[in-house]
Structures are given as structure tokens and as C-alpha cells.
Amino acid sequence: MFDFNFNWDGRLTLGIEQIDSQHQAFFQIGRHIEQILLIQCIGVTEQELMNILYDLREYVTYHFYDEETFMKTIHYPHIVQHIAEHESFKNYINSIDYTALCASPYKELTHLRNAIVEWVFEHMVKQDKDIEAYYQRLSS
Ligand SMILES: [Fe+2]
């Protein structure tokens, strides 16, 4: 996986305050994982791994709900496909096995980090930016 360090890039901003701040919170979770990987998971505790999982599960619940509510409010036309992508990522996050994560944190966290980076480039950069494009046309 190429070098990506979860520094927020202003080009990802949608101009929808609540959603933007949630996306930035997601990047913080990514950065947290990245920092643990940088030190090869040395000293990482089960509590810390639990907190990461908790943060991610919470994120896919409240953030997707808010983003989907916003799409409904503006009658976004591609909402069905968008929600399907959310459901798929949510299922992945909810399926992460805590026991396996604690047993092989470096391997499992690397996999998780790669999945999050893929989500950024395949979903946030494309699908979420499309919401912005539609919203801009609506308000112009
Ligand atoms: Fe989305």
C-alpha cells in the first residue's frame, strides 16, 4: 500500500460542516492506527485495540446515519448505491474479530489500515464528493 498518513486534505472537504468534522474524526482514528503500526504495535494494549474498534463501530453508525439523512434531505439521486457502500463497509467493520486483533495486532491492524485507506480513495474521494457536486448545483 502506498504511503498515506491520514493528514486531512482540504480537497476532501464537502462544505457540510457536520459531515466534514465527522470525516476528520475518521482520519484521526486512521492516524491512531498508523501511529501504532509505525512502532510495530510494541506496547499496544488490548484496551487500546478495543478503543479503536469501539471508535470505528461508533463512527460507522453515527456518521453513516447523518450522511444518509443529509442525502435524503437534498433528494440525492444516487442514495441507494451510496447506502449500499455504507452497509458493506459497516459490515466489514462490525465483523472485525477482537480476539484475532489482540492475537496478531500488526497483521490485523495492517489489514484494517489498508481497508480504511481504500475506503478513503474509493468512497470518500468519489462517492462523498459526488454528494458535494450535487449539493453545489442545488444551491447555485
Ligand atoms: Fe458516504
UniProtKB/TrEMBL annotation:
The keyword Cell membrane belongs to this UniProt entry's keyword annotation: no
Whether Electron transport counts among this entry's keywords is no
Q: Which residues form the Hemerythrin-like domain?
A: 15-131
- Molecular-function GO term, any one: metal ion binding
CDD domains documented for this protein: Hemerythrin
* Keywords recorded for this protein, A-Z: Iron, Metal-binding
Q: Which NCBIfam families match?
A: hemeryth_dom (TIGR02481)
UniProt record similarity statement: Belongs to the hemerythrin family.
Full protein name: Hemerythrin-like metal-binding protein
Annotated organism of origin: Cellulosilyticum lentocellum (strain ATCC 49066 / DSM 5427 / NCIMB 11756 / RHM5)
Per the UniProt record, the lineage of the source organism begins with: Bacteria, Bacillati, Bacillota, Clostridia, Lachnospirales
